[in-house]
Automatic annotation (TrEMBL):
Keywords in alphabetical order: Signal
InterPro entries, sorted: DUF4947 (IPR032542)
UniProt keyword Signal present: yes
Keyword Signal belongs to the record: yes
Superkingdom of this protein's organism: Bacteria
Name this polypeptide is given: Lipoprotein
Signal peptide: 1-25
Length: 234
């Protein structure tokens, strides 16, 4: 996967504002000061961790041996609770679009959708990869889109809010879990904010804008609203 363009400070603040405001999907302790966005070969990953708590613990450790011991125990306990054995890979997904069924979009590779929050603040999330899905291939499966947009930069806020409503609806209809919704919301914010840094995206809309399909400037499929009628993932 291509490495995403790093966010500017303004984009980070905007992303955090949306995420922290959406308590239905993202816990309020996701306020953070340090952001790293990356992706690996198994899927698109977004992580956001707090640097302030580690700074405070470092300060405590210098004050006295007893406070250092206490800080170490606290850190150990925190890492233990936040580093639970979350499965980040899975099997049973097609290798690429050519090996997938044609009834809907299928996640490819071995990336499992997950969302993990940290007690110190911040989170890590992963959404699927869609290897081999071009715009033409998507249209051959889902039909012609009801709407096509190429100006996400000027519509990013409205798009984020619209997709948030779509994710809420899918949770309420018990089609996806809250944790899965949080992971996909993180992906939406990632793309929407990147669009403000001169990255161009194409959005296909289906089902009265309840389904969004996002392609990169190079035509790479990046995101699909996780409605099980349109997307298969794990």
């Amino acid at each position: 996967m291509k490495k995403r363009t790093p966010f500017s400070l303004f984009a980070l603040v905007a992303a955090l504002f949306l995420l922290s405001a959406c308590r239905f999907l993202v816990p309020s302790n996701s306020e953070s000061t340090t952001r790293s966005s990356n992706s690996d070969k198994s899927g698109k990953k977004v992580s956001l961790k707090d640097s302030s708590s580690s700074s405070k613990q470092s300060s405590k450790s210098k004050s006295s041996s007893s406070s250092s011991s206490s800080s170490s125990r606290s850190s150990s306990k925190e890492n233990s609770s936040s580093s639970k054995d979350i499965e980040k890979t899975t099997d049973g997904l097609p290798e690429d679009a050519d090996h997938a069924k044609k009834d809907k979009i299928y996640a490819t590779g071995d990336a499992k959708v997950y969302y993990q929050s940290y007690e110190s603040g911040g989170f890590e999330a992963q959404i699927p990869e869609f290897k081999g899905y071009t715009q033409e291939k998507v249209k051959s499966i889902l039909g012609e889109p009801e709407k096509i947009s190429t100006d996400l930069a000027s519509e990013y806020e409205a798009f984020q809010n619209k997709e948030l409503e779509n994710l809420k609806r899918l949770v309420q209809e018990q089609k996806i879990s809250t944790e899965q919704a949080r992971a996909f919301l993180a992906g939406v914010v990632d793309i929407a904010q990147a669009s403000r840094l001169q990255n161009t995206y194409t959005i296909y809309s289906y089902k009265n804008e309840q389904i969004s399909i996002i392609f990169s400037q190079e035509g790479e499929l990046l995101y699909v609203t996780p409605d099980p009628d349109y997307l298969y993932f794990k």
